[in-house]
Design brief:
13 strands, single chain, five-stranded antiparallel sheet
């Protein structure tokens, strides 16, 4: 497993090794012993899987606040997507900054998103599937959203002027400055 740091503390890109032959490949997408050696000590309690039929489908930006916060391990099961995490830990030197990575079935990359981050993605191909593990159960009362196009964050979704396919919830989400957020930075 290759573990890469990103410019935002705690946010990691994981690339599992693939062992292939004429039948296809085998890949170990998570191993708690190996990940603990890299300082990633998570216990996942829920797996989620979603399908977005149209390219340009944008889901996010979402999180759950404390005490129901979730860390997420995100990968693309089919197709290709651009995955984004935004640091919303108050006091963090990278508060409000975003990082994005292309995740695809072909590249096998995963994004390990700690609690204290917003998460969202936009699909690049038809019938794109995202699969992700969560460290907390879904708690509707803790669910929060921020606008995907909040100018204070300034995410470049790579839409080239096209309008994304959005849910009503995402289209009506507030900006980060108006988010009811109880995350505090506890890093170096």
């Amino acid at each position: 497993m290759q573990v890469e740091d990103t410019p935002i503390e705690g946010l990691k890109i994981l690339t599992p090794r693939r062992f292939g032959d004429a039948r296809g490949f085998f890949s170990e997408s998570w191993n708690s012993r190996v990940m603990a050696e890299h300082g990633l000590d998570y216990t996942f309690v829920q797996d989620n899987h979603s399908l977005s039929e149209a390219p340009g489908t944008l889901r996010g930006l979402h999180c759950q606040v404390n005490p129901d916060a979730q860390a997420k391990l995100v990968r693309c099961g089919h197709g290709r997507l651009f995955d984004v995490a935004v640091d919303i830990r108050r006091g963090s030197p990278t508060y409000g900054q975003w990082f994005g990575a292309e995740l695809s079935f072909e590249n096998g990359r995963q994004l390990m998103i700690p609690a204290g981050f917003l998460h969202g993605f936009v699909t690049r191909e038809p019938n794109t599937e995202i699969v992700y593990k969560c460290t907390g159960f879904y708690a509707p009362e803790a669910d929060r959203s921020v606008r995907y196009d909040d100018p204070a964050i300034g995410i470049d979704w790579g839409l080239d002027g096209a309008e994304p396919v959005l849910s009503h919830k995402d289209a009506e989400a507030p900006v980060l400055a108006d988010l009811d957020n109880n995350f505090e930075y506890g890093g170096a």
